[in-house]
Amino acid sequence: MKKLSLLLVSVMLFGLLAGCAAPTATQTPTTAPVATSAPTEAPTAEPTAISAPVTLNIMAAASLTEAFNEIAPVFEAAHPGVTLVFNFAGSQQLAQQLTSAAPADVFASANDKQMGVAVDGGRIDKDTPVPFVQNALVVIVPADNPAGITTLADLAKSGIKLDLAAKEVPVGQYALDFLTKADKDATLGNDYSAKVLANVVSYEENVKAVLTKVSLGEADAGIVYSTDAATLPDKVKQIEISDDLNVIANYPIAVVKDSANAELAQAFVDYILSADGQQVLQKYGFLPVK
């Protein structure tokens, strides 16, 4: 009995102590929960900006004038701070300028020969040039056609005043190649080229000079690229050269080896080779590379 009383007292004392103890606090997280944010959309592509204004010097065959001038504002808009400065001339003149250390970033030639001159002169890496368009030849006469030239055979008639580019100019050499092929055409005769060349009154430094003289009536006929003839539809008429006699002009383009802005120069070349660049070139009558 005494043991039972002692046990009851012990139980009551334990319960009293438990009731007086401080309640255990709920532990608060030490780090606030991170809210899950909605995924952000990828930023819209912006034009490629540069840290300082850059001028890209583009040396290009005269026949590329209209097409490259249309491409320029599009490229500049995509590269804020970049200004394209063109030097349009006969490819042989441009190659000479390059070998004379003229500053340039890109060279676009109207034939492989003059690109080769730039390569041999150390300004273009031999593995860099890439063809980007082709072109074809056409005979042009003034809009009023005072000499009455309507066929290729008429170019061999005595008294005709013919204007050609010099043989050093790509279009001039292409014209000579056409005449060589024409000598093998039975309908024109094996002395055709000799008779035609006897009618040449002037040799020009670039294709635009030939186009200008014929359009002004200073010559009865000339041989130019079809792309150039198309720029003056109201001032010259065209006489087609058949495919079997025509000579296809190949145009290569390359970044100049010592360009101070090689990355942007390559970007210009890449644009010329792109679908958008090719679309502009074909708009002006250039042919895609085959």
TrEMBL record:
Gene3D superfamilies: Periplasmic binding protein-like II. It comes from the Bacteria. One of its GO terms (molecular function) is metal ion binding. It is found in: Cell membrane. Residues 26-47 are annotated as: Disordered. One of its GO terms (cellular component) is plasma membrane. Residues 1-21 form the signal peptide. InterPro entries: ModA (IPR005950), ModA/WtpA (IPR050682). Belongs to the bacterial solute-binding protein ModA family. Involved in the transport of molybdenum into the cell. Part of the binding-protein-dependent transport system ModABCD. This is Molybdate-binding protein ModA.
